[in-house]
Amino acid sequence: MKLAVFDFDSTLVNAETIEELAKAYGVGQEVTNATDLAMAGKEDFYTSLLKRANLLKGMDAHKAQEICQNLPLHSGALEVVQGLHSLGYKVVCLSGGFKWATGHFKEKLGLDADFSNTLHVNGGVLTGQVSGPLMRGDSKAEILASLQSLLKPEHTLAVGDGANDIGMFKLADVSVAFNAKEITKKAASVVAQTLDLREILECL
């Protein structure tokens, strides 16, 4: 058995979920600025996530869920998952984003599992709080290490774009920087040259 782990925002989907929510709620620029700092490794991921989620306080939860489930997939997303499955991979998504998005696209893409965070809701609106297993910059590496210990894969592929993906790159046999920040490209064994996820199948 082989294991493939994908980041979600800006990797499987061509969007940052929290930025799309923020735009719809009128706090787009503040959230984008904070996301950019975190993804470039210039601000602690945990602190940044709390700050960004708090800016969404009061947003209609139904509207937020709808946005999460209508994000645009990157070209080749379905084909890369199917291709990896045919090569004997379990395909998992690890995201500092939100279950409303990753859970929906897990079903749509046929992923084997998704790990992400939960936006808290009270009275039909977001409370501004968030919790879950992927709150910190090193969370993806921790979960990947647990999966490797449990599944004992003979080969691990990791794909991501941001600074918080570098930890899982270090645990992978092949790491692909896709649509990535400079800091992430430097840490990867392969840098994707296109925005078509099918290119990843050529790296194996």
Automatic annotation (TrEMBL):
Keywords linked to the UniProt accession: Amino-acid biosynthesis, Hydrolase, Magnesium, Metal-binding, Serine biosynthesis
Gene3D superfamilies hit by this protein: HAD superfamily/HAD-like
Pathway stated in the Swiss-Prot or TrEMBL entry: Amino-acid biosynthesis; L-serine biosynthesis; L-serine from 3-phospho-D-glycerate: step 3/3
This enzyme's EC code(s): 3.1.3.3
Catalytic activity from the UniProt record: O-phospho-D-serine + H2O = D-serine + phosphate; O-phospho-L-serine + H2O = L-serine + phosphate
Organism for this UniProt entry: Helicobacter gastrofelis
PANTHER family, per database record: PHOSPHOSERINE PHOSPHATASE
Keyword Disulfide bond: no
InterPro entries in the cross-refs: HAD-like_SerB, HAD-like_sf, HAD_sf, PSP
Lineage, opening ranks: Bacteria, Pseudomonadati, Campylobacterota, Epsilonproteobacteria, Campylobacterales
Cofactor: Mg(2+)
Protein name: Phosphoserine phosphatase
Family designation: Belongs to the HAD-like hydrolase superfamily. SerB family.
